[in-house]
Amino acid sequence: MAKTDTKTDTKGETARTSRAPRRTTSTVASRPARRATGAKTETPYHHGALREALLQAAERVLERDGLAGLTLRAVAREAGVSHAAPTHHFGDLTGLLSELAAVGFRQFNAAMASACDTATTPLERALARPKAYVAYAQAHPGMYGIMFRTERLDYSRPSLHEAAEASFAGLANAIGMMRQEQISGDALTLNQGAAIARAWSLVHGFTMLLLDGRLEDILERLPEGTTAERLLEAMLTAPVTSKLPV
Amino acid sequence: MAKTDTKTDTKGETARTSRAPRRTTSTVASRPARRATGAKTETPYHHGALREALLQAAERVLERDGLAGLTLRAVAREAGVSHAAPTHHFGDLTGLLSELAAVGFRQFNAAMASACDTATTPLERALARPKAYVAYAQAHPGMYGIMFRTERLDYSRPSLHEAAEASFAGLANAIGMMRQEQISGDALTLNQGAAIARAWSLVHGFTMLLLDGRLEDILERLPEGTTAERLLEAMLTAPVTSKLPV
DNA sequence: TCCCTATCTTTACATCGTAAAGATCGAATA
DNA sequence: TATTCGATCTTTACGATGTAAAGATAGGGA
């Protein structure tokens, strides 16, 4: 009996920031008395805001250990709770990833909106959004991966659905402004759809290839010191020399 | 003792095609005599070509159960061997996925080359490659996922490196032909790099968004019955109405 | 005061990847 | 021909993970 799952912690001590009471239970088995009574503001009994704490813990784990390290149990360890605690708040791993992706989409949307606001010239305005797009992905590759590369997302969750929808709406709106036409919410012409798909595919594809390191071959063949941002800009502004946009 | 891992099979009977001798060992424990001596062409002792058989089994599992179902043990079950057999041939899961991705890249390259050959007019030629690109991904979404969305690939493996390199070379070559200029193997101008990045990003991004179902919103707002292929074509040929290719 | 409910912990189990040791067979060697 | 050797495959084992189910623990009304 009790052959598996008796160690629980014994690691995760790397880069510990501030939170997480840290119960120091590395003895061996059976810790019946969690704490006598609620005093001294330590080990917050029922915690009060575990859900938020878990999401923040998940973000830390993601940034520290990457996508592969983002497990339910790792998040629980980071938050200092039992490994089954996240399940109660998110149902399963898909639930946690979906809520985390929603957080990511909100950050993502805010970053792009902010970048658009600070632009002045028309060209700057047009480039601000894709630049912010790629910049966010480079700054938060794990989060971008959760948002765009995970098959384990549940878009029926309202928070995720809304946040992702807002992202798409921002894109469609930007395209509409650039084409100087109103893009309605329900029907699209083929050319409008093509324009949206082109912009999104272009920036999303660039980002994915960049994060996957597949643009390295190109970047290192370009003039010395050409950055990814410069390549992005060139890709978006260089003259098209054939009938197709290539 | 013998608490874990004594069941081995008992499933995976869905959609069994033809291969795999099927040893019918669903009794319980200890099957010492695998078979008396090599006779009757059944249960091929050392199998002879397990490596190839495992790769084919992996492809079947991938198509049947998707990326999530593609595990070392599932592949071993599909091939009718012990769960540790794949390790001997591929080292670890990364090894298997990398070799499988190499198979995919070869199929992928062949599909595009074939499509380009059968094109006649210049416009057809220009569109043949991206269309074949997307068509392959739609026909083999699991394989495309392995090739382009997996972080667990080892590009230091020669077979994978070569197959992926060939894919990139084909793209660069096609862009060069379209721009009517020679694209050298080592150095690139910024505009050349931008053109390659644009073409690749455009098609790769479109494919990823399509496979992830993120283009559904657009497709269902387009005129009745517009297919993804039609949208792709429009995206590649519709006139650009602003300074940027959007 | 007592019970009810949400919250969190324990315990348990199937599955997975991987390591290590044992079995098996083809082939080279004597 | 008999024996040894090395490659191939199987067994066994272990830690980790997701998830289900039952037990503990308060906080908040009745």
From TrEMBL, chains A, B:
Q: Which SUPFAM superfamilies match?
A: Homeodomain-like (SSF46689), Tetracyclin repressor-like, C-terminal domain (SSF48498)
Q: Which intervals carry biased composition (Basic and acidic residues)?
A: 1-16
Q: Which parts of this chain are annotated as the region Disordered?
A: 1-47
Q: Which Pfam families match?
A: TetR_C_33, TetR_N
PROSITE patterns on file: HTH_TETR_2
Q: Which InterPro entries does the entry link to?
A: Homeodomain-like_sf, HTH-type_TetR-like_transc_reg, HTH_TetR, MT1864/Rv1816-like_C, Tet_transcr_reg_TetR-rel_C_sf
Asked if Transcription regulation is a keyword of the record, the answer is yes
What's this protein's name? TetR family transcriptional regulator
Organism of origin: Bradyrhizobium forestalis
